[in-house]
Amino acid sequence: MRAAMVEHLSSQSRPYRYFFQNPVSFTFRVFCSESSVKNDDVEAVYRIISSSNSSGNLKQSLKSSGVFLSNDLIDKVLKRVRFGHGNPLQTLEFFNYTGNRKGFYHTAFSLDTMLYILGRSRMFEKIWDVLTDVRRKDRTLITSRTVMVVLARVAKVCSVRQTVESFRRFKRLVPEFDTNCFNALLRTLCQEKSMTDARNVYHSLKHSFRPNLQTFNILLSGWKSAEEAEGFFEEMRQMGVKPDIVSYNCLVDVYCKGREIEKAYKVVEKMRDEEIMPDVITHTSIIGGLGLVGQPDKARVVLKEMKEDGCYPDAAAYNAAIRNFCIAKRLGDAYSLMDEMVNKGLNPNATTYNLFFRVFYWSNDLRSSWNLYVRMMETGCLPNTQSCMFLIRLFRRQEEVEMALQLWNDMVEKGFGSYMLVSDVLFDLLCNMGKLVEAERCFLQMVEKGHKPSNVSFRRIKVLMELANKQDSLGNLSEKMAIFGPIITSPESTAVSTPSFPS
């Protein structure tokens, strides 16, 4: 529920007026963007980026590839790099090369994705270089979303003070340094630091920016303390900001998570008094709260009563009710609710299945886990990374190599789950069981998909291959690993830029 609320709060779009203010740019972007970019072209460019060892080599390979570098293709390539953990420096070369073409303008998506890639590698000075270049060419690309992307990466490794200093640095870059940017800072602090930090920064900067409804909703959505949430709710009223359904849902949620169900019901009554009808998110919070106080049956009744408020349970509401029965170890009732979902035309999602996988993992129930996985695949619901991790760890615990390989093959074929996280556990299992041939095959499949195996996994396989005197295979794997750059032997040797901040 909280994730859905944050996603709702963070959704922003670029103003349409930009295109009317920049007709030349708009015309070029329309003709240079294609909606039907071939996946083969995306993969071809991605491989060029991954295998190039110099700027000249990259440019020449791109020119000779014959691939038309449209906005849509660049967006997809950068997304591919992001999720494939590609080389950030070579990706930056690609971004600069395509952006420097006469009359070409990157999209806001490309810019934000490039900044995310650099930020993940802690190349903060290069982030500011990119932003400075973009400011000169097309400042409108730098939005409050850009602010949030950069600050989120800074906040992961730097202090609150440094994060705020980075925020202030945007004043010279973003076209409108306004409340939307302030909200981006607060959202970042709520997600990456603590609510106490967000509260302190809010109070120190609120006189420079006029807090609006979204400001308070961001802060309200992060509080786990009812007392703090009530305090911000009161300040919101004092400033003349009228709460909306998101505000009330935040208060209901914090009461429910604190097991204060009666207070949550009183908020719902107040909503009705103000003619704000509770929605599916309100009811989902109530369902979750009832489960926390040991009333899963009463929560199930809420599912049936929702239609009285003109709303109907969605997958998240059913998941909350199913979670209650899973916590109570009443799996029969949980399965009954999942069948009810299907009968009502709602498809169980990966989160639904994960509720069961978690129970089976902790009870070491391999057969039930496997049967559920088979059902999941047969219904066309692809597992997510959490599903895969519950399964692969259980397979390793019980040394089930065949099941582990089946999961991996499905991942390779259908493209779900995190190759990096799952492969570490898989290679550990295969090496423990002496399955070097299988480990080598999975390693090559991973590289073929453009994903880098971890250095830990590579060293584990390397040692066993040396013991088995498989020098040819080891040489092949070493060549494949070299595509992704030098192998880092320790965290201290990681060559990344340290963040620099204005004085």
From TrEMBL:
> PPR repeat positions in this chain?
244-278, 279-313, 314-348, 349-383, 384-418, 419-453
Which species expresses this protein natively? Trema orientale
- What domain of life? Eukaryota
Q: Which Pfam families match?
A: PPR, PPR_2, PPR_3
Q: Which InterPro entries match?
A: PPR_rpt (IPR002885), TPR-like_helical_dom_sf (IPR011990)
Which family does the record assign? Belongs to the PPR family. P subfamily.
Could you identify this protein by its name? Pentatricopeptide repeat
Keywords in UniProt for this one?
Answer: Repeat
> What lineage does UniProt assign to this protein's organism?
Eukaryota, Viridiplantae, Streptophyta, Embryophyta, Tracheophyta
